[in-house]
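Extended Data, record hydroxymethylpyrimidine kinase
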Amino acid sequence: MQYYQYCSVLTIAGSDSGGGAGIQADLKTFAALGCYGTSAITAITAQNTLGVTDIHVVPPAMVQNQISAVMSDIRPSAVKIGMLPNTETVLAVANTLKSYEPVPIILDPVISSSSGKQLADNEALLAMKELLFPVVTLLTPNLNETAQLTGKHVGNVDDMIDAAKALLNLGSRAILVKGGHLDGAELYNVYADQQGKRETFAYPFINSLNTHGTGCTLASAIAAYIARGQSITEAIASAGVYVNIAIKEGQNIKTGEGCGPLNHFFKPRKLAKLNF
């Protein structure tokens, strides 16, 4: 009998009890794109469509044990990292991952929730810059995160390009600055890497209240497409289209009283099989 492996992706992130962002959005995205999702939870948040009301940080040793349990048995083809609430968690993640054979890593540097709740302290951000930025495959900050990381206001596409260059100077291998918070008929994401490649991705703006978890979903989709064999820029393009359609397909859905989630399963794919 011929045996196969599922195309597996690991997410290291916080849990969203409302199901719209974090681990829950990541696993939905992996499944929708035909990947087998595994997880290591860094924090448990009490949240819904109206915001975050409480956060419980998972002990770093438990984060490390979750990652090791997955990496030693269900080898992922890519890793997505989200919420890392403190320095100890950053250290646990960085040290654990480097003890295994490298795989592509997408880091979404979650600093605060869409409702404004602080999700990572300043020391954690400094630790990410030192320990993770130089080793991850792609960094995917939004405009607010980019401004905090660079110390500069980002208000247009030219600012995004300059910010991407500044982040490369911090040692990152490749950057995708997400422009979802800019006004206009189109949305832009700006890519830059250490090899000098620059690319701008444009998508039509969709007027929807249901955009909770967009950043998590994009980073997870990029990881999933890379796991399925696409290059970084191919994965960014595919993931952008997926997220754009997921927003469009979810804009008339009522989930809770606030900002609802995307429709991750508008066109789910079968689990991809790899030769064993």
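Summary. The helical segments are 22-32, 60-71, 87-97, 122-131, 143-150, 157-169, 214-227, 232-250.
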